[in-house]
Amino acid sequence: MVTLEEKVRKSGVAGLSMAFVQGDNLQKTACYGYLEKNTHKKVEATTIFNSCSMSKFVTAMLILVLVEKKFLQLDESVNNKLKNWKIPKNEFISQKEVTLRNLLSHQSGIKDPLHSFTEYSLEKGIPSMKDLLNGKTEYCSHKIEVTYEPGSQFHYCDAGYCIIQQLIEDTMGESFDKVMRQYVLDPLEMKNSHYLGLLPDENITCGHDKKGNVVDKNTTIYPYSAACGLWSTPSDLSLLVIELITAIKGKSKLGISSKNAKDLIHQQGIYHWAGLGVFLDGEEKEMEISSLGWGKGFQCMMVIFPYLEKGLVIMTNSDLGVHQMEGIIGEIYRDYKKTF
User: Fold this and answer.
1) What's the whole-model pTM score?
2) Kind of pairing between the strands at 15-22 and 25-33
């Protein structure tokens, strides 16, 4: 019988880390491979990977906390609280304003411009969300605006989460990273979770392409914290999985009500698979919540079965050039589902 270690090695993935959740606990972790190909630095449970778009789930959980504390409302026009930038008025929002619910579920009427939201470069620097949304940076050279009626279509959108980041900063008077740390990362003791500017020098993985080559001088960073900027570990992210499971039961550490936790995993708009920052599959007890991350040199996946009280976080430092379900992540996921 082929072991998982052998499967990981044959898959072409340089390094892989996993965390398994059962009920209110981190059940176990498993690590394979190396931080960087052709080195002897092995992946450990504390090794930090790029979360890529799994950052959106983390952002959605922060929003629930701020909603509970009455700083924000899911169904209020975001323009009411945006200060340093506002969604431009046009015919598409004359009757229906954009809300946080729209933005979180990718149904805001906004599409990402082509060739936008690329990796960080030292030459381009860290963009302000205001300049980015105004189309004044090389990361996004077109002004962000609504191009169809909010709630009428789904378009996966990083720009929407940049608006969320701007909204949080305008409302709270602090950087997004500081607000996230105060209300989510520190209370849950997610000690190995960081954003650009505070990344540690040690025990952080290098991204690899499908040929196994290290990409972008050892790291690939996205300077859009709310959309895809979090670096973390499966163990840290499992704490957020546990928080969602326990919040649904009315036992949240962050103060999220059962009602709002269930809203996150409830169908949003006309798409049965769209939640708030997550994707949905199945119904009732068999409901499955997922979040995928895919960036240059990295792939990852989070899957939660909230009513079975189970969860799995998988992070790799390799982009195999195929969808997660077609590579080692998908194989691990399918094997995991067979256990219950």
Assistant:
1) 0.96
2) antiparallel
